Fold:
Amino acid sequence: MKVFQDFPLQDHNTFKMKVSCRKFIELERPEEIVTLAEQQDLAQPYYILGGGSNVLFTHDYEGTILHPVFQGIETMEEDAQSVTLRVAAGTEWEDLIDHCLEHQYYGLENLTGIPGLVGSAPVQNIGAYGVEVKDCILAVEGYLLPTAEPFRYEAAACQFGYRSSIFKKELSGKCFISHVWFRLSKEPHYTLTYKALTEELAHQQLEPSLENIVRCVRAVRDSKLPNIDEIGCAGSFFQNPVVPEAQATALKSQIPDLVSYPAVNGVKLAAGQLIDKAGWKGYRKDDAGIYPKQALVVVNYGNATPEEIHQLYETVISDVYNKFQITLQPEVNIL
Ligand SMILES: Cc1cc2nc3c(=O)[nH]c(=O)nc-3n(C[C@H](O)[C@H](O)[C@H](O)COP(=O)(O)OP(=O)(O)OC[C@H]3O[C@@H](n4cnc5c(N)ncnc54)[C@H](O)[C@@H]3O)c2cc1C
Structure:
């Protein structure tokens, strides 16, 4: 492992917040977490950081950041129909997508282009264009903290939900995911329920195939989301709210073109539309703003401070509440 003291985090969070941490540890092998537990390092405050694309640091972190850098994709089982992969936490998500393309494994293609590392994917059950990663996860393996006792949870035990899992709830901060097991199909089957994706396929005059879906998802994402090499952000800042059906019906008198989807406990609304209707899309004050092409995305145009981002998202939450009586919840982990 590599240990750094008073480490700058600007290049380790896609919001590009200029903060630092007391200690930064790069884990080069999963078992190093056991060594850290034996040395009592985990008795101090710690935070596990992958690619930093789903976090907002609001101040310097006065503890230890644990950052997995071990990578690798192992084939554990294979037959004519499917393959089981065990993927190390430090593997870039996009490297896994490329691996699937190269070997023609189906299931994850709609999740192309999501920044971050594989070890973080189960934490908020990443999702895009009608697919959630839970649909392909077989199991999650790692260590419970601070004891470093090994665990392996089958998918059913991971309590996956919309942008949620046991790792974001009761095990938040209490486990280190070392590997994710995926079961992928070797036979073509596609999820084409999302309008923007089917429209892009039609627009580019492409038949559904693994390559074409990856290409179209990239095109749709590029047209709607900022390039994180140029503009700081953490993707969708807010979760889409789920409200009782009666509330959604009542809201239609205020927003006749209200977008809504059926959800388990009511109706899911599009947080981006509510923020847009409240007049925030494209808002900018100094370097903090709401992305003009997607109102769900809070952005740092360069030198926004954590306080400015914090003030902006709190103001958006209270304004949306005042106008529509809906409380938006951040999807991003706020530290
Ligand atoms: C431009 C942009 C677009 C995005 N689009 C999407 C999208 O379409 N869909 C979507 O779902 N998300 C999206 N995101 C959010 C983000 O990319 C995902 O949530 C991603 O999985 C985060 O990966 P990361 O490695 O950067 O995680 P981090 O931000 O580093 O960490 C996220 C959380 O996981 C925990 N964690 C990380 N690694 C481990 C580990 N090994 N063990 C235990 N806990 C761990 C962290 O403590 C933290 O709580 C987007 C973000 C950006 C910037």
